[in-house]
C-alpha cells in the first residue's frame, strides 16, 4: 500500500490530540503532494465538497502488540473487542477521520491540501482521500452504545496568553486526562502547535500555569548561524 503524503498537524505527541475529528475546529492539517500529472488530475473537483474522509495509518502503534481485546479510555478500564472500538491498536493499523476541506493550493512544485478539525498526530501517513457524502454517510437511524461526549472544562489563563491562543484554548477545553486518573490538581504538560504548556484541572476548570514557545529546527538553525 502506497503512502500518499504525511499530514502536518499541531499535535506533536499523542496526549492532547482531540478524541474525535471536528471537535477542535481550529486544528489545521496540511498535506503536500508532488506537482505531477497524477496529483494535478486526482484533486480535480475536490472543491465541490465541504468535508473529506482521510484514511490513514496509526504509524506509532507497534504491530507486534495487537490484541483482540483492548481497554478504551472512555470505558474506564473495561475490556472490549477491538472491532467494537475505535482503538488505534488494531489489525492493519488503519484509521479514518472526517475533516473540513479548507483549500487546495498549487505552487511551482507542490499541490497542498489544507483541512481543519483534524485529530491526527503530526506526521501521520495518509493512505487515501475521499469526499464525504451527506446522503450516504449520515445514517439517521444509526444506534450505538451511549458514550458521553468528551467532557468540556472552562479554561483560565494564569500566565501570559499568546496571540494565537485559540487552538490551545479549544484543545484544553476538552478534558484529556485518562478517565481512570482524573485526580484534581495534578500538573500536566502538553505540546500543542509551537507551544509547551503546563496546566492543571480543578473543579471543572483548566488552569494554564505556564507556556513557552518551542524552537523549531529552522528557527534554531537560524539563531545558531547568526
Task: Set down the secondary structure blueprint.
Elements: E1 5-7, E2 28-34, H1 37-42, E3 51-57, E4 69-70, E5 80-81, E6 94-106, E7 110-116, E8 124-131, H2 134-137, E9 154-157, H3 166-172, E10 188-192, E11 195-202, E12 205-213, H4 217-225
Parallel strand pairs: 9-12
Antiparallel strand pairs: 1-8, 2-7, 3-6, 3-8, 4-5, 6-7, 10-11, 11-12
Distance linking N and C termini: 44 Å
**What structural category characterises the helix and strand content?**
mainly beta
Cα radius of gyration in angstroms: 19 Å
Tally of structural domains: 2
CATH superfamily of the largest domain: YaeB-like
At the first level of CATH, the class of the largest domain is Mainly Beta
- The residue ranges in which pLDDT falls below 50 over 5 or more consecutive positions are 217-223
CATH architecture type of the largest domain: Beta Barrel
Largest sheet: 6 strands, antiparallel
What descriptors fit this protein?
single chain; 226 residues; mainly beta; Elongation Factor Tu (Ef-tu), domain 3; four-stranded mixed beta sheet; 4 helices
Walk me through this protein's architecture.
By secondary structure, the protein is mostly beta strands. The protein has helices spanning 37-42, 134-137, 166-172, 217-225; strands spanning 5-7, 28-34, 51-57, 69-70, 80-81, 94-106, 110-116, 124-131, 154-157, 188-192, 195-202, 205-213. It folds into two domains: 5-137, Elongation Factor Tu (Ef-tu), domain 3 (Beta Barrel), CATH 2.40.30; 154-213, no CATH class. It has a six-stranded antiparallel β-sheet, with no helix packed on it. A four-stranded mixed β-sheet has the order 9-12-11-10.
Amino acid at each position: 500500500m502506497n503512502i500518499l503524503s504525511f499530514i502536518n498537524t499541531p499535535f506533536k505527541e499523542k496526549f492532547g490530540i482531540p478524541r474525535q475529528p471536528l471537535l477542535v475546529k481550529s486544528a489545521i492539517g496540511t498535506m503536500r503532494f508532488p506537482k505531477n500529472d497524477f496529483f494535478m488530475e486526482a484533486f480535480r473537483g475536490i472543491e465541490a465538497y465541504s468535508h473529506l474522509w482521510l484514511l490513514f495509518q496509526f504509524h506509532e502503534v507497534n504491530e507486534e502488540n495487537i490484541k483482540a481485546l483492548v481497554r478504551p479510555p472512555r470505558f474506564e478500564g473495561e475490556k472490549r473487542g477491538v472491532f467494537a472500538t475505535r482503538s488505534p491498536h488494531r489489525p492493519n493499523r488503519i484509521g479514518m477521520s472526517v475533516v473540513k476541506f479548507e483549500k487546495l493550493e498549487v505552487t511551482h512544485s507542490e499541490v497542498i491540501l489544507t483541512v481543519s478539525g483534524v485529530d491526527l498526530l503530526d506526521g501521520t501517513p495518509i493512505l487515501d482521500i475521499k469526499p464525504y457524502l451527506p446522503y450516504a454517510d449520515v445514517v439517521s437511524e444509526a444506534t450505538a452504545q451511549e458514550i458521553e461526549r468528551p467532557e468540556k472544562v472552562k479554561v483560565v489563563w494564569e500566565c501570559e496568553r499568546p496571540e494565537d491562543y485559540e487552538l490551545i484554548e479549544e484543545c484544553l477545553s476538552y478534558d484529556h486526562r485518562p478517565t481512570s486518573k482524573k485526580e484534581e490538581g495534578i500538573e500536566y504538560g502538553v505540546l500543542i502547535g509551537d507551544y509547551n504548556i503546563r496546566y492543571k484541572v480543578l473543579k471543572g476548570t483548566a488552569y494554564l500555569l505556564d507556556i513557552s514557545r518551542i524552537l523549531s529546527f529552522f528557527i534554531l538553525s537560524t539563531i545558531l548561524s547568526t
